[in-house]
């Protein structure tokens, strides 16, 4: 019972058989070839019609910052998932992709007039070797983004016309042409260009600076070449490759200039701080120098005594220390004002002011580093990096303020102690004569101012040398070059691959859908039932009669039934006088023709054969023979006729027929009656072969009652006619209700007989 259920599930299975699909694809190989060829032709047209797009790039080396903020900042960035050293790189990427830098580069380049030539309706960019150049004389309100066609008329004259029709002007080279609220002049560099390209239309378009910045910035791509290095790749993808090369080179040039400009600004701030100090000291130096010269001239005193020299030496040393301490105090005051009032801008390093305090220098460097990272992190309260950096900046400012307060207190104490020492030395001068004491005071002030002035001059010279040695924080390794432009579109290899894929995929899908949606059986679908033997394959023959085998026994059609007869011998060899039932899933499959011709080939073999017309509802067998149709199975089963009376001889030897008789009102009941079983046993005793033409199984149940009496059940399947579901249902029901042999007859198969060297008649012919 389980075995029958398994077989039934096989018959009812509605899946996709890969082998069946494979056979369909192989059978329709020409469809694949055709679509692939068409796809390749379209791909070639696509490649020819597409304006090439190129990628140009340049690489820039970013120098690592020499002064880092310390381990805490590195740990902070690593905790946020950023490798050490990547902060500066990310900042430089942000600067390179900024609209301000793009605007600076475009401000130097003359890109606000874009040139094209028309080819097949497309605008092809034109950059180098321009035959003309448009110069804007005044005004900025030109029609932006509107293509203006330039047509050369000869004799240095031309015509301008816009697509929207607002501009239609005829002028000559050098004329002032009013367009919009501005005016332009067109200069010609090469009139031969128009002679060489008579069918090409030259076009130019005005672009606004804002639109150019937006367009280039959107196409600009900056990325790090590796996570461990500090090399950036700057690239552009576009159709005007020469213009993109010029832009990239100008962008890197402006990027370098910006880096150097920032360093020079920092140096200038330091130099300005020194010069402000020099302005005050120089005035005091001039005054004291004049006082010293006047005193010496008036009192005729040129030099101090040895004691006075010692005193002034000590005082000069102390005054120099005092000046240094006051310079530190001035820096501390400026730094405190910066922290308390949140002043923006770069902080001067303590070392540049002569303050050599490692703790202070480290804190100032860390604060400057964190502020730089905060500026580059982007705005928004939801930005976790910005929030963490803001907290770090606040904490670092508090640490710096605490350190600064301590240094300021120490500075005040140092100044007070220094002043006390100066006062003690000055008290020693009271023992000197009055004139020498006065000279001592004047010379002391002069020497102090002179030494302080000299110190500031040295600091200024150092800063100026540092400024002169400044270099950008980056270096262009590989500038953009037209020779190394990489074509990214159209990509012939990718386009042909897509064409190959679509050329194969489209017929695959169409054939698959056709197979999936087609409810009719095809030869390939029979592979699903390969566990059921096929005893016969009947070829398609035009204009045949049902008794074709008897009329044309030498035809290919007749030979197919002889092959079927041979195969049936292996199935029925264990049966004496076998009963062979022929049925189908639905009407029109050819079961009646198959039954008639199968009985015919047995009769031609000399076997005593009877053809039973058991399709009681729609009998067709008897129409092909000259027999009495008023008596038959129906009259026998109701007891009106004996079996000998209903068996009728035909005009063909060894072939008898039992007709259906009059159509009964209860054919199913008659087929299921015990008289029907007795009827078949009577025929088995009288004939060597009993061929039964029964009703279609898929529509009515008559045949289900007959299969128990049959030794072999043949189901006729007509290609492109039988419905798949009906066939599955038929085979399932037959396999469930009988344990007898079940086989298939494939009808209406297209066979190329010429391949095998056969003609319409069975026999060898010359090919």
UniProtKB/TrEMBL annotation:
<keyword id="KW-1133">Transmembrane helix</keyword>
<keyword id="KW-0472">Membrane</keyword>
<dbReference type="GO" id="GO:0004715">
    <property type="term" value="F:non-membrane spanning protein tyrosine kinase activity"/>
</dbReference>
<feature type="transmembrane region" description="Helical">
    <location>
        <begin position="494"/>
        <end position="513"/>
    </location>
</feature>
<comment type="similarity">
    <text>Belongs to the CpsD/CapB family.</text>
</comment>
<dbReference type="GO" id="GO:0005886">
    <property type="term" value="C:plasma membrane"/>
</dbReference>
<feature type="transmembrane region" description="Helical">
    <location>
        <begin position="20"/>
        <end position="43"/>
    </location>
</feature>
<feature type="coiled-coil region">
    <location>
        <begin position="248"/>
        <end position="335"/>
    </location>
</feature>
<keyword id="KW-0067">ATP-binding</keyword>
<keyword id="KW-0175">Coiled coil</keyword>
<feature type="domain" description="AAA">
    <location>
        <begin position="579"/>
        <end position="722"/>
    </location>
</feature>
<dbReference type="InterPro" id="IPR005702">
    <property type="entry name" value="Wzc-like_C"/>
</dbReference>
<keyword id="KW-0812">Transmembrane</keyword>
<keyword id="KW-0829">Tyrosine-protein kinase</keyword>
<dbReference type="Pfam" id="PF13807">
    <property type="entry name" value="GNVR"/>
</dbReference>
<keyword id="KW-0547">Nucleotide-binding</keyword>
<keyword id="KW-0418">Kinase</keyword>
<feature type="domain" description="Tyrosine-protein kinase G-rich">
    <location>
        <begin position="435"/>
        <end position="515"/>
    </location>
</feature>
<dbReference type="InterPro" id="IPR025669">
    <property type="entry name" value="AAA_dom"/>
</dbReference>
<dbReference type="InterPro" id="IPR050445">
    <property type="entry name" value="Bact_polysacc_biosynth/exp"/>
</dbReference>
<keyword id="KW-0808">Transferase</keyword>
<protein>
    <recommendedName>
        <fullName>non-specific protein-tyrosine kinase</fullName>
        <ecNumber>2.7.10.2</ecNumber>
    </recommendedName>
</protein>
<dbReference type="InterPro" id="IPR027417">
    <property type="entry name" value="P-loop_NTPase"/>
</dbReference>
<dbReference type="GO" id="GO:0005524">
    <property type="term" value="F:ATP binding"/>
</dbReference>
<dbReference type="InterPro" id="IPR032807">
    <property type="entry name" value="GNVR"/>
</dbReference>
<dbReference type="Pfam" id="PF13614">
    <property type="entry name" value="AAA_31"/>
</dbReference>
């Amino acid at each position: 019972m389980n075995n029958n259920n398994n077989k039934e599930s096989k018959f009812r299975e509605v899946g996709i058989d890969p082998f069946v699909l494979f056979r369909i694809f192989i059978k329709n190989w020409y469809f694949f070839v055709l679509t692939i060829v068409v796809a390749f032709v379209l791909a070639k047209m696509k490649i020819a019609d597409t304006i090439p797009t190129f990628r140009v790039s340049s690489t820039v080396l970013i120098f690592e910052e020499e002064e880092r903020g310390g381990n805490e900042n590195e740990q902070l960035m690593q905790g946020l998932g950023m490798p050490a050293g990547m902060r500066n790189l990310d900042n430089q990427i942000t600067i390179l992709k900024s609209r301000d830098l793009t605007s600076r580069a475009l401000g130097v380049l003359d890109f606000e007039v874009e040139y094209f030539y028309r080819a097949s309706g497309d605008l092809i960019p034109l950059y180098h070797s321009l035959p003309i150049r448009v110069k804007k004389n005044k005004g900025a309100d030109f029609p932006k983004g509107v293509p203006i066609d330039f047509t050369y008329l000869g004799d240095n004259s031309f015509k301008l016309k816009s697509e929207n029709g607002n501009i239609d002007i005829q002028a000559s080279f050098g004329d002032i042409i009013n367009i919009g609220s501005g005016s332009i002049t067109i200069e010609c560099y090469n009139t031969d260009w128009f002679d060489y390209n008579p069918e090409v239309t030259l076009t130019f378009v005005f672009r606004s600076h804002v639109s150019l910045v937006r367009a280039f910035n959107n196409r600009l791509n900056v990325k790090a070449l590796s996570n461990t290095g500090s090399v950036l790749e700057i690239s552009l993808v576009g159709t005007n490759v020469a213009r993109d090369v010029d832009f990239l080179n100008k962008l890197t040039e402006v990027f370098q200039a910006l880096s150097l400009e920032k360093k020079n600004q920092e140096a200038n701030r330091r130099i300005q701080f020194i010069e402000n100090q020099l302005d005050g000291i120089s005035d005091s130096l001039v005054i004291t120098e004049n006082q010293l010269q006047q005193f010496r001239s008036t009192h005729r005193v040129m030099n101090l005594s040895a004691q006075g020299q010692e005193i002034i030496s000590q005082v000069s040393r102390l005054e120099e220390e005092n000046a240094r301490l006051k310079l530190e105090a001035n820096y501390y005051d400026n730094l405190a004002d910066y922290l308390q009032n949140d002043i923006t801008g770069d902080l001067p390093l303590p070392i540049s002011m002569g303050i050599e305090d490692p703790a202070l220098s480290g804190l100032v460097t860390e604060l400057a580093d964190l502020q730089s990272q905060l500026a580059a992190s982007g705005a928004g309260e939801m930005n976790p990096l910005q929030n963490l950096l803001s907290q770090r900046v606040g904490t670092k400012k508090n640490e710096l303020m605490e350190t600064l307060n301590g240094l300021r207190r120490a500075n005040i104490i140092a100044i007070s102690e220094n002043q006390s020492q100066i006062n003690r030395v000055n008290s020693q001068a009271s023992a000197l004569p009055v004139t020498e004491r006065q000279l001592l005071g004047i010379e002391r002030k002069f020497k102090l101012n002179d030494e302080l002035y000299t110190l500031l001059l040295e600091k200024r010279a150092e800063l100026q040398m540092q400024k002169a040695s400044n270099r950008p924080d980056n270096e262009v390794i590989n500038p953009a070059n037209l020779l190394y432009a990489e074509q990214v579109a159209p990509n012939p290899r990718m386009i042909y691959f897509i064409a190959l894929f679509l050329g194969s995929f489209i017929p695959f899908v169409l054939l698959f859908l056709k197979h999936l949606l087609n409810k009719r059986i095809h030869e390939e679908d029979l592979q699903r039932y390969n566990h059921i033997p096929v005893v016969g394959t009947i070829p398609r023959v035009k204009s045949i009669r049902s008794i074709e085998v008897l009329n044309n026994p030498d035809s290919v059609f007749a030979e197919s039934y002889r092959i079927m007869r041979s195969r049936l011998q292996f199935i029925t060899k264990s049966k004496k006088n076998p009963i062979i039932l022929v049925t189908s899933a639905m009407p029109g499959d050819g079961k009646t023709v198959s039954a008639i011709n199968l009985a015919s080939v047995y009769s031609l073999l000399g076997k005593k054969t009877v053809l039973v017309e058991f399709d009681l509802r729609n009998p067709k067998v008897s129409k092909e023979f000259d027999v009495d149709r008023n008596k038959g199975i129906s009259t026998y089963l109701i007891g009106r006729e004996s079996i000998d009376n209903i068996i009728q001889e035909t005009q063909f030897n060894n072939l008898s027929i039992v007709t259906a008789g009059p159509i009964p009102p209860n054919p199913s009941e008659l087929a299921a009656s015990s008289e029907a079983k007795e009827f078949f046993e009577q025929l088995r005793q009288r004939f060597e072969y009993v061929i039964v033409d029964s009703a279609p199984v898929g529509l009515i149940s008559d045949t289900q009652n007959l299969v128990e009496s049959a030794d072999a059940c043949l189901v006729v399947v007509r290609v492109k006619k039988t419905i798949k579901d009906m066939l599955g249902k038929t085979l399932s029901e037959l396999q469930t209700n009988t344990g007898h042999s079940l086989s298939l007859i494939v009808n209406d198969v297209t066979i190329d007989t010429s391949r095998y060297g056969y003609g319409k008649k069975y026999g060898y012919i010359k090919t």
